[in-house]
Amino acid sequence: MSRIADIAAALAGYDPQALSVQGVQAFLAQLVAPAVVSEREEVALREALGRVLAEDIISPVSVPPHDNSAMDGFAFDGAILRDDSPTDASVELRVVGTALAGTAWRGALAAGDAVRIMTGAVMPEGLDTVIPQEFCKVDGDRVRFPAKVLRRGDNRRFAGEDLMQGQPALRRGERLSPAALGMVASLGLPSVPALRRLRVAYFSTGDEILSLGEPPREGAVYDSNRYTVFGLLTRLGCEVIDLGLVRDDPATLAATLQQAAGQADAIITSGGVSVGAADHTRAVMQQLGDMAFWRVAMRPGRPMAVGLVPRNQQAAPGSAVLFGLPGNPVAVMVTFLAFVRPALLRMMGCHEIAAAPAPLLRARAASAIRKKPGRTEYQRGFVQAVAGALPEVRIAGNQGSGVLSSMVEANGLVVLHHDQGNVAAGDEVDVMMLEA
Ligand SMILES: Nc1nc2c(c(=O)[nH]1)N[C@H]1C(S)=C(S)[C@@H](COP(=O)(O)OP(=O)(O)OC[C@H]3O[C@@H](n4cnc5c(N)ncnc54)[C@H](O)[C@@H]3O)O[C@H]1N2
Ligand code: MOO
């Protein structure tokens, strides 16, 4: 029973020789199980950036813990402010004390009293409004300010307005951002329960590829894909397993693929998935795994393979998901961003929102772009802010799928959709921003 064949049979209009980008995404949504990792560990906050929460975090306290002032100024009872008072009316109050941040002021208050207060200081009992000091004239123990500059309740922050004790602060499946780290810290928690990192093994294939350290050789190029894949995976928070460079030899390829399946949740390879004569990669994948080989209607990234490689059942049950990416260096990055990244986020246990692709940005094309309808193109571009208007995107020079220099220069990929045709200078286009 082939899982690949089942999914293929269930997908309307499935054609492995001309699969749309949406078709690939729909296929992967069926193939890739969500939350394949279940083991959890307690992780110190500083180590937790990018980790996925194994359970909801329930707030043990309210944040902020007390009603407090949002401004430096004077706290008073806002009941004295009236909607119908004349525009030039002013308020005069007696200042009876000072509330500093860090300690609660507990003096006695009479009607018409105010307390000088600092930002973050606990609101004195019975006072609900703060006039910022910029509006005030102070004369001895008297403070005066125009009545119309504020309303009752202004500049008071409520206890629990950020987080309420007993309520979920963060959801299971959240991938921890810098803001989430700060939020956990604001609850007084030094660590979080996280799912273990997703393990991803990767290797490059090809006899014309050189490992770093080898002397240059005619007809050979250095292995750059292992480094872009390393960077992409590391930034995603995966545990990376580098299985090196594998020669185009069936026995070595088979052994490496089996080793990868035994160690990892997912496997990424580059090269050897198109139709070249000397490539054994396809044959070995097909022999060991349940595979699909596609020609995707996209550029770059046309040839691609996906499938499941079973593990040695005694040692570890199940199978690893294999992503066989094309060899061209930019095709590797584009197929990773379009397909592998969202799939890995799902496998990592991210909830739907955290695993969703980043929204596309709208930008104005600085010059005309040629585009044939019937495939999705990802063109490297440089997006720049324009004051008071949509950002402008300039297409980077050489769009060859082996050209990394334009990928380095780019800060975004202009996404020219499947049915879209030529773009005129000044037209709006969608851009997938690349992470800085
Ligand atoms: N007759 C056809 N030829 C090709 C087709 C096709 O449909 N019909 N598709 C082209 C496209 S598009 C791509 S992409 C490549 C993909 O081929 P493979 O995935 O089999 O990759 P390779 O042939 O092994 O390599 C392609 C290219 O990339 C360079 N490369 C490979 N690995 C690395 C690495 N680790 N680091 C740096 N560079 C690497 C390799 O030297 C080649 O130049 O096929 C087209 N041909
Ligand atoms: O995948 Mo190939 O790089 O489209 O050119």
TrEMBL record:
EC number: 2.10.1.1
Pathway: Cofactor biosynthesis; molybdopterin biosynthesis
Pfam families to which the protein is assigned, alphabetical: MoCF_biosynth (PF00994), MoeA_C (PF03454), MoeA_N (PF03453)
UniProt cofactor(s): Mg(2+)
GO cellular component, one term: cytosol
GO terms, molecular function: metal ion binding; molybdopterin molybdotransferase activity
GO biological process: Mo-molybdopterin cofactor biosynthetic process
Keyword ATP-binding: no
Domain MoaB/Mog span(s) in chain numbering: 201-346
Keywords noted in UniProt: Magnesium, Metal-binding, Molybdenum, Molybdenum cofactor biosynthesis, Transferase
Reaction(s) catalysed by this chain's protein: adenylyl-molybdopterin + molybdate = Mo-molybdopterin + AMP + H(+)
Keyword Magnesium applies: yes
InterPro entries xrefs: MoaB/Mog-like_dom_sf, MoaB/Mog_dom, MoeA-like, MoeA_C_domain_IV, MoeA_C_domain_IV_sf, MoeA_linker/N, MoeA_linker/N_sf
Function as written in the Swiss-Prot or TrEMBL entry: Catalyzes the insertion of molybdate into adenylated molybdopterin with the concomitant release of AMP.
Family: Belongs to the MoeA family.
Protein name (database record): Molybdopterin molybdenumtransferase
Organism: Variovorax beijingensis
